[in-house]
Specification:
By secondary structure, this protein is mainly beta. It has one helix and three strands; from the N terminus they run βαββ.
């Protein structure tokens, strides 16, 4: 999962978990800055859930 801009600080994982019923574990993650723009990356393990997650473009990401 990759975040860029202000969405780096949004509670996206909780929103995905609530909407899909999936559980997640954060295996690794980091937040850096590229020219004053926050940039974050995470590796997740997903399990369970009743709905198949879909890829979405987050606000402020390209």
């Amino acid at each position: 999962m990759t975040f860029r801009g202000e969405s780096t600080y949004d509670p996206v994982l909780v929103q995905v978990a609530r909407s899909t019923g999936m559980d997640f574990s954060i295996l690794s993650g980091r937040i850096d800055r590229i020219k004053d723009t926050p940039y974050g990356q995470m590796i997740l393990a997903l399990s369970g859930g009743t709905r198949m997650p879909r890829c979405v473009r987050l606000p402020n990401s390209a």
